Description:
The first copy, chain A, has helices at 2-46, 49-80, 84-119, 128-150, 153-183, 188-220, 229-238. Chain A has a single domain, classed as Methane Monooxygenase Hydroxylase, Chain G, domain 1 (Up-down Bundle), CATH 1.20.58.220. Chain A starts with a helix and ends with a helix. By secondary structure, chain A is an all-alpha fold. The mean pLDDT of chain A is 93.
Amino acid sequence: MIEQETYKQHISTQFNAELEGVKNSLLEMGGNVERQVNDAVDCLVKMDTGQAEVVIDRDHAVNQMEVSIDEECSRILARRQPAASDLRLVLTVTKITTDLERIGDEAAKIARQCIRISEAAASPSNYVEIKHIGNYVVGMLQKALDAFARLDVELAVEVVKADKTVDKEYRSAMRSLVTFMMEDPRVIGSVLNEMWALKSLERVGDHTSNIAEHVIYLVRGLDVRHVELEELISQVEESH
Amino acid sequence: MIEQETYKQHISTQFNAELEGVKNSLLEMGGNVERQVNDAVDCLVKMDTGQAEVVIDRDHAVNQMEVSIDEECSRILARRQPAASDLRLVLTVTKITTDLERIGDEAAKIARQCIRISEAAASPSNYVEIKHIGNYVVGMLQKALDAFARLDVELAVEVVKADKTVDKEYRSAMRSLVTFMMEDPRVIGSVLNEMWALKSLERVGDHTSNIAEHVIYLVRGLDVRHVELEELISQVEESH
C-alpha cells in the first residue's frame, strides 16, 4: 500500500515537472519573440541591416520552438491524460505557441522591410510612430507573458485594454502617412514600406491580446476571445 | 462478460459519434468561412455595400463556431482521453479553428474596405487582380477542406504549393498598384484600400496553407509547418 502511494507520488511529481517544463519552454519562446520584436523595431529605426539579417536568421529558432513545444503538449496529452486545470494549461500553451510564432513572423517581416528600405531611396522619416508603437507593443508582450507566468488575470485584462490604444495610434499614424504620401508622391515607395512595418506592429498587438485572452481562459475557464472589452471586464469580475 | 463488451462498444460508438460530430462542425465552419471570402471579394468587385454589411454581420457566427468547436474539443479530451490518431484529430481541429477564424476576420476586413472605398472617391480600378487572386484562394480553401474531409495528403500538398502561386501573384499585383499610384497620385487613397484588400487575400492564402499543413500532420503525423516546399514533398513521400 505504501509502495503504491510512493509510486503514485512519483508519477505525479514527474507529471508536475512536465507541466512546469512546458510552461518554462513557452516563457523562453516568449522571451525570444519579445527580443525579436524589440530588435526588429530597433534595426528599422537605426537602419541597421546587419541586425536585420540577425533577426531574420533567428526566426528559424522561434519556429523550431513552436514545433517542439506543441510536440511536448501532445505527448503530455497522450501519456498523462490531464484533466481540469492541467488540461487547460496544455491547451492554452498550444494556442499561445501559434500566436508567438506569428509575432515572430511579423518581427522577421519588419526586419525584411528594413533591408528593403535601405536598398531603396533614403528614408523619408525618423520612424517616430514606429518607435513609439513598437515600444508600446513590446511592453504589452512582456505583460502578457508575465500574466501567463503568474496566472495574473488583472494584468491580462490590462493587455487586452492596451491593444485598443495600439489600434487607435495605428489608425492615426496611418492617416498621417497617407497625407505625407499625397503631399510628396516621390516618397510613396518608402512610406509604403513604413506602412507595412506599422501594420506588422498592429498585428503583433492583436496576437499579444490573443495571448492575454488565453491567460484569462487558463485561469478562469472563460473563453473571452470574441467578447467586447466592457463585457470581458464584467465577465472577469463576476467569475472572481 | 458479454454485457461488458456491449458497454465498451456502446462507449466506443458514442466516442466515434463525438469525433464525427466535431469533424462535421469544423467542415460546416469551413463552408461558412469559404462563403464569407467569396462574398467579400464579390461585394468589392461589384461595389455592393449591402452585401458587405451582410458579410461583416455574419463574422460573429464564424467566431461563435470557433468557440463552440474548441469547447467541444476540450470536452472530448477531458472525458475520452483519446490517443494516437483520435488525439491528433482533436488537436488538429483546434488548430484549424484558429486559422478559419482568422480567414473569417480577413473576409470581414475586405468587406469593410468595400464600404470605405464606396464612401471615398470613385473606384480607380476594376479590381481584376482582386477578382483573380480572390477566386484562386477560395478554390484553395475548398481544396484544403476537402483534404481534411477525405484525409487526402496529396490534395493538401497541392494547397501548400498553390500558396506559392498566390504569393507570387500578390507581389506582382502590389508592384503594379505602386506604379499606378506613382503615375497618378490622386488615386493614392483608393489604391491603398485595394492594397489592403489584396493583403487580406494573401493572408487568407497563408492560413489556408496552414490548414493543409495541419491535414498532413493529422494523416501522417508529420509536422511540416516550417519546412520548405521541396523538403515537405519528400518528407510526405517518404512517410507513405
